[in-house]
């Protein structure tokens, strides 16, 4: 047992500590029982057992002796922790790892610490994030896929159970100030409401302060933003395009650090910083777009960019000198065009897309740097362990082969032609009028030197990104490079070793599932720069794509359908019939040469190891469904409710909204119109980029269906409503079964039809995730900017709004058929 400072401990408190049989030191300060006494705790059970009262109680206070329980603090010398996770940024994106996008903050951090060239992840955002904050594999945490596509199996239900405490909870109970800024894609949608329950929110994971968005992405100009459990709207009242969450989040983190330092200057912090950049929508400020555009980084196209990045990587030493650049994908299933095959219009559009993405990257790097500057200003940088993960997966290929001004169009399988993008969206690309994503070929280039992209867990382009670790007080090999194989599950064990805190055996009396990663702290010393990795085996799986790393060998399934391919005629083979490849990563850094034919026995051996790992970590049953997985039944914020009633004003979060995709629905508004008339929003879901709204415009009832900002279908009464009580109904009959079909809507007033229209298509699979359902007003963005501006508060009286969804139109048989093919909405 390590030394225990007995001279400062009362016998009773010491006995409680020793009963844990901990191998960790217990450090105390101050006089036992005094208000200023502190102690670290053994940490094997959290929270630590309450100490017995060590004073004396007599009949009167004068005869009695006071005794205060010591305040819990971390072990002496424990560092602060800044954990940074950049979104959708491939290995070849930042200048720190050979990219052309200026990343001075990360460059400076790397010069003062270590670059890790073989850091791996789960190839998709929330699965990686669940593994990162827990030290356990993503299927162990229930995050085999994002929550919006979850299924009712332990590895896929997106529920973090109490026996899997996160690093937030561990450090919180050991005396750290814990906070979370930015993206939280680990709260299931059905509990992502402002009334909870909150056990699956950051606060339930042990993060005492939260400022961010509990969804996979959000509009940076008008975000779905929470402070702790309360929705906030700090951009309201400012000119559109002036306020941006990327800057506001850094401001909030800096303010939090200053308040924490002023209140508890000696209290270490864990600050988890997860900005929206560079996930779509790509929303940098105009200042950064102008800066990057002036550099003309992308004028020579994606093929030349790839060659430039590859040369830079060799010069920096982040890939070996003998590494080979994987070939440009010309055949199925990727099949991307060379730059020289493009028209002048295509090149013009695609350069703009890359400029805006790069500006968002540089902007994110800069604002994160401001947070680090504040830590330095406080004199705490020397003893702050910064772990910066430059990507939660490979670069995103969710923008289609031609990019998109509206990422929800891409998510729903809708390609927007280049000429339409140029004519309608080019000048505003990246501004509040768009939610853009770049073309896939840029994505492939930003994953240089590897093959494939985000979502593709079987290839390094999907699951390998760079990382930088800095801790000036401990890491003396400044600017060093580490090539050991590691995974995001190794971050928590590294933090625990650095802080001297054990992984708890129980939390709240619940026995804990073991940590599955290993510490990377051994790599901090220069003498260990080239020692073998301690992480010897790691499985990968995402949407049926899978791989296994074992002792330098890497076996993986081939990609059968590119993530961006929505061709409905493509047959997807059974998930167990995928072909496998084999790579020797000890001699082949980039996964260049498939050697399965040379080593068939080794391939069989690794396939068997994959099955062992999959059984151990909840990977089965495998599922390769695409769109249709989003339509599978899962818990609702209002289980069993078949008719929803609302009284204005109120906002309903996505997880509690009634369903309306691919089905009939009826909206009924019982309202009173005053003598002066009325207008304003009755009920709306979504906004500028897709959704619908029922409202009065100059007294006339209107229903608008916004089809991905490409079409707006409108039903409007010819007459304004006279004063008095009225019932306004919109009834929609869906032309199912199937996805994205059209339907017929009827708008009626007091039982009389006033407008009828049939529309050819509807949104098939993914509704907008960062807008409320609003009753009596409209938040964030409106469904038709030409009709009204938010909040468009209703000036009459709403007695009641009801929404009655019909049953889903897809039968089980049709769902099964859809799972065999790529679903695509009607043209």
Characterization of the model:
Belongs to the sulfatase family. This protein has 827 residues and is an alpha+beta fold. It folds into 2 domains: 80-612, Alkaline Phosphatase, subunit A (3-Layer(aba) Sandwich); 644-818, Sandwich (Jelly Rolls), CATH 2.60.120.200. Helix content is 21%, strand content 21%. The chain has 16 helices and 33 strands. Strands 5, 6, 7, 8, 9, 10, 11, 12, 13, 14 and 15 form an 11-stranded mixed β-sheet that branches. A 6-stranded antiparallel β-sheet has the order 22-33-24-29-30-31, with no helix packed on it. Strands 23-32-25-26-27-28 form a 6-stranded antiparallel β-sheet, with no helix packed on it. A hairpin with a 2-residue loop joins strand 18 (537-542) and strand 19 (545-550). Residues 1-22 and 821-827 have low confidence and may be disordered.
Percent of residues in β-strands = 15-25%
Task: Report the C-alpha radius of gyration, rounded.
Answer: 28 Å
CATH class of the largest domain: Alpha Beta
Q: Compute the number of structural domains.
A: 2
Distance between the termini: 70 Å
Number of helices: 16
Signal peptide: 1-25
GO molecular function: arylsulfatase activity
Pfam family, one: Sulfatase
Family: Belongs to the sulfatase family.
Topology, please?
Blueprint: H1 11-18, E1 28-29, E2 38-39, E3 45-46, E4 71-72, E5 80-85, H2 104-111, E6 114-120, H3 125-134, H4 167-172, E7 177-183, E8 209-213, E9 225-227, E10 230-232, H5 245-263, E11 269-274, H6 286-295, H7 301-316, H8 344-377, E12 384-389, H9 407-411, H10 418-424, H11 440-446, H12 460-463, E13 464-470, E14 480-482, E15 486-487, H13 491-499, E16 506-507, E17 510-511, E18 537-542, E19 545-550, E20 553-557, E21 580-584, H14 600-616, H15 627-630, E22 644-646, E23 650-652, E24 665-673, E25 680-687, E26 690-697, E27 700-707, E28 711-716, E29 724-734, E30 743-749, E31 752-759, E32 773-775, E33 797-805, H16 812-818
Parallel strand pairs: 2-4, 3-16, 5-11, 5-12, 6-14, 6-15, 7-8, 7-11
Antiparallel strand pairs: 1-2, 6-13, 8-9, 9-10, 12-13, 16-17, 18-19, 19-20, 20-21, 22-33, 23-32, 24-29, 24-33, 25-26, 25-32, 26-27, 27-28, 29-30, 30-31
């Amino acid at each position: 047992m390590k030394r225990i400072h007995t001279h400062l401990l009362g016998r009773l408190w010491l006995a409680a500590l020793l009963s844990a049989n901990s191998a960790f030191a217990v450090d105390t300060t101050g006089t036992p029982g005094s208000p200023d006494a502190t102690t670290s705790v053994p940490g094997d059970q959290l929270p630590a057992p309450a100490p017995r009262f060590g004073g004396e109680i007599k009949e009167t206070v004068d005869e009695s002796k006071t005794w205060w329980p010591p305040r819990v603090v971390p072990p002496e010398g424990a560092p602060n922790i800044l954990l940074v996770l950049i979104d959708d940024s491939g290995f070849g994106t930042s200048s720190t790892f050979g990219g052309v996008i200026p990343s001075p903050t990360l460059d400076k951090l790397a010069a003062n610490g270590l670059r890790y060239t073989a850091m791996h992840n789960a190839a998709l955002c929330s699965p990686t994030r669940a593994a990162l904050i827990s030290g356990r594999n993503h299927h162990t945490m229930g995050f085999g896929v994002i929550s919006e596509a979850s299924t009712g199996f332990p590895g896929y239900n997106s529920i973090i159970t109490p026996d899997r405490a996160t690093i937030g909870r561990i450090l919180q109970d050991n005396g750290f100030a814990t906070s979370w800024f930015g993206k939280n894609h680990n709260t299931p949608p059905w509990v992502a409401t402002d009334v909870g329950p909150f056990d699956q929110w950051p606060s339930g994971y042990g993060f005492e302060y939260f400022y961010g968005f509990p969804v996979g992405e959000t509009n940076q100009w008008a975000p779905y933003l929470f402070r702790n459990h309360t929705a906030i709207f700090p951009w309201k009242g400012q000119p559109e395009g002036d306020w941006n969450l990327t800057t506001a989040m850094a401001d909030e983190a800096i303010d939090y650090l200053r308040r924490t330092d002023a209140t508890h200057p000696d209290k270490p912090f864990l600050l988890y910083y997860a900005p929206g950049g560079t996930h779509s929508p790509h929303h940098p400020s105009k200042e950064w777009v102008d800066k990057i555009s002036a550099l003309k980084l992308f004028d020579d196209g994606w093929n030349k960019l790839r060659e430039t990045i590859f040369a830079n990587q060799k010069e920096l030493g982040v890939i070996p000198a003998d590494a080979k650049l994987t070939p440009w994908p010309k055949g199925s299933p990727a099949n991307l065009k060379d730059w020289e095959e493009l028209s002048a219009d295509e090149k013009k559009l695609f350069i703009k897309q890359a400029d805006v993405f790069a500006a968002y990257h540089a902007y994110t790097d800069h604002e994160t740097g401001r947070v680090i500057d504040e830590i330095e200003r406080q004199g705490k940088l020397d003893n702050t362990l910064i772990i910066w993960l430059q990507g939660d997966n490979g670069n995103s290929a969710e923008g289609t082969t031609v990019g998109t001004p509206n990422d929800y169009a891409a998510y729903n399988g809708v390609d927007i032609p280049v000429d339409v993008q140029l004519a309608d969206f080019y000048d505003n690309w990246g501004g509040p009028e768009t939610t853009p994503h770049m073309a896939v070929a840029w994505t492939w280039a930003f994953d240089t030197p590897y093959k494939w992209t985000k979502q593709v867990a079987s290839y390094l382009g999907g699951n390998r990104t760079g990382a930088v670790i800095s801790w000036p007080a401990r890491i003396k090999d400044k600017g060093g490079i580490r090539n050991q194989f590691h995974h995001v599950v190794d971050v928590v064990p590294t933090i625990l070793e650095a802080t001297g805190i054990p992984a708890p055996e129980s939390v709240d009396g619940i026995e804990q599932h073991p940590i599955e990663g290993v510490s990377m702290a051994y790599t901090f010393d220069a003498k260990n720069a080239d020692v073998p990795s301690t992480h010897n085996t790691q499985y990968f799986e995402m949407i049926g794509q899978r791989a296994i790393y074992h002792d330098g060998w890497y076996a993986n399934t081939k990609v059968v359908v590119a993530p961006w391919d929505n061709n409905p005629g493509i047959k997807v083979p059974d998930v167990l019939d995928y072909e496998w490849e084999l790579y020797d990563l000890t001699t082949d850094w980039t996964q260049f040469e498939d050697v399965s034919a040379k080593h068939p026995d080794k391939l069989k051996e690794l396939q068997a190891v994959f099955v062992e790992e999959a059984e151990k970590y909840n990977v089965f049953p495998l599922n390769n469904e695409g769109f249709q997985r989003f339509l599978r039944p899962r818990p609702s914020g209002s289980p069993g409710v078949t008719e929803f009633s609302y009284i204005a004003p109120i906002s309903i979060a996505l997880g509690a909204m009634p369903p309306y995709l691919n089905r009939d629905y009826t909206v009924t508004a019982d309202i009173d119109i005053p003598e002066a008339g009325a207008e304003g929003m009755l009920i709306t879901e979504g906004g500028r980029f897709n959704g619908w709204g029922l409202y009065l415009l100059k007294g006339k009832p209107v229903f608008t269906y916004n089809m991905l900002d490409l079409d707006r279908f409108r039903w409007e009464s010819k007459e304004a409503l006279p004063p008095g009580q009225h019932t306004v109904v919109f009834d929609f009959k869906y032309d199912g079964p199937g996805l994205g079909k059209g339907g017929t809507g009827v708008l009626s007033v007091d039982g009389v039809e006033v407008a009828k229209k049939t529309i050819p298509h509807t949104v098939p699979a993914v509704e907008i995730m960062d807008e409320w359902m609003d009753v009596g007003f409209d938040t964030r963005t409106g469904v038709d900017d030409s009709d009204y501006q938010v909040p468009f508060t209703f000036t009459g009286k709403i007695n009641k709004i009801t929404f009655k969804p019909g049953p889903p139109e897809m039968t089980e048989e049709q769902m099964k058929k859809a799972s065999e093919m790529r679903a695509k909405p009607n043209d």
